[in-house]
Every structure is written in structure tokens, then in C-alpha cells.
Amino acid sequence: MAELKQRTLDEVKALSRDEAVEIMRQAGIVGAGGGGFPTYFKWKNPQPNLIVNCTESEPGYWGDKVVHKEYFDEFLELFDAMKSIFGVERVIMGVHFKDEEWFSRYKEHANGLYDVSLVPDKYSMGEEKTLIKNIFNEDKEKWVPRRVEMPDGSKRPGLPLDAGHIVNNSETLLNIYNALFHGKPVTTKFLNVFGPDLELKMFDAPLGASATELIKLAGLDVEANAGKYSVIDGGPYLNEMGIESLGEGDAYVRRTTNGFLVIPKGVASKEYADIKTKQPEEIISLAGKVSGVNLPLGGRFLKPATPLISEGDEVSFGQKIGEPVDNGFSIGVWSSMDGTVSSLEDDIVVIGGGEDFKQAAKAETEAEAAR
């Protein structure tokens, strides 16, 4: 039963907890909005409250709002299913006050299926413990404890599960929906590409796609601006250096990449804490439109999956290329494009589409962006 395939709502509700957890593991789902913790492991120990973190706090980001607008019905089906499978008693959506209008449709159609909780318009709301504290501001028993004493007398930091909560962000939950209902693994990532000199584009980009290629598709002439910009993987507050000097080296779309912020080289990212961006007109799908990908078999918390392919193999979009191992945290890995495996070293699978593919994909994507 624990296989990735198309299912109706009733069929999803009929899944056992173990089956649903294994589907998440095989589909390659990790926390899409933070540190990338494997989602399946959280749901091995279900809790009464599912908290949906909709507080996309990085300045300039649009992902949460656009995703909930585009996939409203899918979220409703998922909330219904999670209550049946995992015994979730409450689904609580944490939403910034400033974004209340974006989520008004949820408030109008709650019908006891979920609650919408408005929280302050602060960056810190993206942190799980802070979000929980603000949702349950008058019920301190539901706050995450600072420390939890272990059976051996040692202490560890408190976790949401210690207070009866599981926190998932919006895209993570949409990935769960796609896996349970459509048998669809994680092969792409929603992300914002933007900067003070670059109008925001929201892409649904293949995992492992080149940051430089995405920036070109977003409209910046990389060659003419070589050495002038840095590329930040993240937003103005929480981020890592992606490309220190644009045009020299590259970065790639990771499972946790929510944005590529393009800023003048040598300027601190927090200088752009007040950056304003326009609502994207659409989510631009780049599936089948990038020239190559670099896919990790593991990750921050993850033991590398066992490769199912070899150098020189032809692979197709959505083909399984990594089988999760049984020791430690590990997830299934799936190809994010059609192409040839050109390298398999250091637990990174490099897939390229060939020169003809590159030129055709570039022309098609540039034409679509121009429209």
C-alpha cells in the first residue's frame, strides 16, 4: 500500500499512519521552509495539533500567499485527510496580520476543519517556538518547554511535540498532498528570485537547477554584470552565501531554497530588510526548461540515499534515482529533469540535457518570461 500512486480522498483517508509516513519518506519530503528536517520523522509521532506555518517572514517573499491562493482546495482536502490518518484534532494556520486578506477565504470556509490564528508582523514568527507562543498566547501550557528532562537525568531543548504540536510550513504540506493524492515525489521547489535591481519572479524550479541560470531567466544579464553582484540563498535575514561574485562559481536550488536574493557585491544582506517587491503575476514552471541539475543524494540531516543509476545513464523527469537507506534519516531522491547522468561523485548526481536541449529550453523559457 505504501507506494506513490494516484488516490482519491477516501483512499488517502484509508491509509494507515505507517503507510502515510513511508510515502512521505519515499517521496523525498523535508521541511521546505527551514532547516530541511525530514518530514516523515515528525509524523512518526503524531500530535493533536497541526500548526501550518504561513508566516513567510523574509522581506520580499510571496510564496506562502501565492501557494495558498493557487492550491486552496488541495489544502482543504489535505487537512481533512490528516485528521483521519493521524488523529489530528486541530489544524491551526498561523498567519501574519498584514496577510489576513490573503487568507480570508480560509476564514470563510473553516467549517470546523481548521482555525486561522493571526500573529504579529514580525520576522521571528517563522521560528516554530515563537509562532506557537503567539498562537497560544494565553495558554502557557501549550508553549514549548525550554528544557525537557530525559530518563537518564540529562536535559534537551524542548520541541513542539513536547507541547502536543507538529509544525509544517505551507510548501511542505503541499508536497505531502502531492505525494498522498497524486503519487508525486518532490522534484521541484517554489522560490523567489529578486533583488534591488531585479524584479521578482516566482519560479517552480527543478531541484538542483543552477542559480546563475535562474537569474538569467529572471532577466539579469549575468555576463554584463559579472563580478558586480553576490547571490544570497535565502532572504535579507536568514541566508547563506550562494555565489560570492556572480559569474564566478555557482549555487544550486536545494530542498530548502526559498529565494535567491541578488545584491551588490560587498553589501550586507540586512541592508535590504526593507526591500519591496511586486506580487508575481504567476508561478513560472521551469520543469523541462533548465540545462542541467546537481542533485544531492543526502543533505544536512540526511544519510545519502543509495544511487539507482550510474554515470552515462539516461534518466527521465520523476524517475527514482536514489533509494533511502534504513539507518539514520534518509529519503527517496527523484530526477528533476530528462537527461544524461554526467557525473556521480561525492553523493551528487549531475544530470545534463545536452547542447540542443539547452538552447531549446533557454529560448522557450525566455519567450514565456517575455509574455
UniProtKB/TrEMBL annotation:
The record's annotation in InterPro entries points to:
Ion_transpt_RnfC/RsxC, Nuo51_FMN-bd, Nuo51_FMN-bd_sf, RnfC_N
Q: Please give the coiled-coil regions recorded for this protein.
A: none
The answer, when asked if Repeat is one of the entry's keywords, is yes
Gene Ontology cellular-component annotations: membrane
Recorded hits in SUPFAM superfamilies, A to Z, give: Nqo1 FMN-binding domain-like
Q: For this protein, what is any one GO molecular function term?
A: electron transfer activity
Q: Which residues form the NADH-ubiquinone oxidoreductase 51kDa subunit FMN-binding domain?
A: 25-177
Q: Which branch of life, at top level?
A: Bacteria
Key words, A-Z: 4Fe-4S, Electron transport, Iron, Iron-sulfur, Metal-binding, Repeat, Transport
Statement: the UniProt record of this protein carries the keyword Amino-acid biosynthesis: no
The residue range of the signal peptide is: none
Q: Which residues form the RnfC Barrel sandwich hybrid domain?
A: 282-349
Q: Name one Pfam family in it.
A: RnfC_N
The family database entries (PANTHER family) matched by this protein are listed as:
ION-TRANSLOCATING OXIDOREDUCTASE COMPLEX SUBUNIT C
**What is the protein's given name?**
Proton-conducting membrane transporter
Which organism's genome codes for this protein?
Rubrobacter marinus
